Automatic annotation (TrEMBL):
This is Probable nicotinate-nucleotide adenylyltransferase. Its EC number is 2.7.7.18. Pathway: Cofactor biosynthesis; NAD(+) biosynthesis; deamido-NAD(+) from nicotinate D-ribonucleotide: step 1/1. It comes from Enorma phocaeensis. One of its GO terms (biological process) is NAD+ biosynthetic process. The gene is nadD. Pfam families: CTP_transf_like. One of its GO terms (molecular function) is nicotinate-nucleotide adenylyltransferase activity. SUPFAM superfamilies: Nucleotidylyl transferase. Catalyzes the reversible adenylation of nicotinate mononucleotide (NaMN) to nicotinic acid adenine dinucleotide (NaAD).
Length: 234
């Protein structure tokens, strides 16, 4: 176990006579935006989570072939975005660990670090549930954490439920609806590169960090083939 990574975790579970609920909000956060924050807050309220850990990925397994902003900048933006909420905690846990980041590795170390009266809740999008059965060591993920699948109002979760049932794995999935916020980190990066406003898509503190550090100015040159490549007028 990486002791240096564990230093970045908050204390939880001190009272042995009560159960604690720890939410884990993983992501690239490149950059973090209001969609992430609203999802975490809605999950916290709906499932009575004591704390939500925001964990910027170090080397995300699903983005090894893509350009990602350096971890220190993504972590700094996460700290800025979550600072005003006492129930949110930005952790260096994943960015300080060497190698590729897998969800199961994070859950294993959290389970080993916290006492048994701390329950783990992994927050993800309902669309990700369609793929989670094929994630690295999916069966162990099912054993280690309850899944919180967030979706926009009106999203059809039938396919997700069917995929989970067909997998035959002991997933415990809680489905919650969140306000219909169609915000993406990709769109924010592209708008910054085009010189367009991203105000009200992310916090002023994150926006200030992006401007100060000149992030995403070269985004258009690094778009994947098939993505929108011009700035347009929208």
């Amino acid at each position: 176990m990486d002791d240096l990574a564990l230093i970045a975790l908050p204390e939880l579970g001190r009272d042995p006579n009560r159960t604690y609920r720890l939410g884990i909000m993983g992501g690239t956060f490149d950059p973090i935006h209001y969609g992430h924050l609203v999802t975490a807050e809605q999950a916290r309220e709906a499932l009575a989570l004591d704390l939500v850990l925001f964990m910027p990925a170090g080397s995300p397994a699903f983005k090894l072939d893509k350009r990602v902003t350096r971890a220190e900048d993504r972590y700094a933006m996460t700290v800025l975005a979550t600072a005003a909420n006492d129930a949110f905690y930005a952790s260096r846990f994943e960015i300080d660990r060497p190698g590729v980041t897998y969800t199961v590795d994070t859950l294993r170390m959290l389970r080993a670090h916290y006492p048994s009266n701390v329950e783990l809740y992994f927050i993800t999008g309902a669309d990700a549930i369609l793929d989670i059965v094929s994630w690295h060591d999916a069966a162990e993920i099912a054993e280690l954490a309850t899944l919180i699948a967030a979706s926009r109002p009106g999203y059809d979760i039938t396919q997700a439920r069917s995929r989970i049932a067909a997998a035959g794995l002991p997933f415990d999935v809680r489905y919650i609806e969140i306000p219909a916020l169609a915000i993406s980190s990709t769109n924010i990066r592209q708008r910054v590169a085009c010189g367009k406003s991203v105000r009200y898509l992310t916090s002023e503190s994150v926006l200030g960090f992006i401007r100060k550090n000149g992030l995403y100015r070269e985004e258009l040159a690094h778009m994947q083939e098939g993505e929108e490549g011009d700035c347009g007028t929208a």
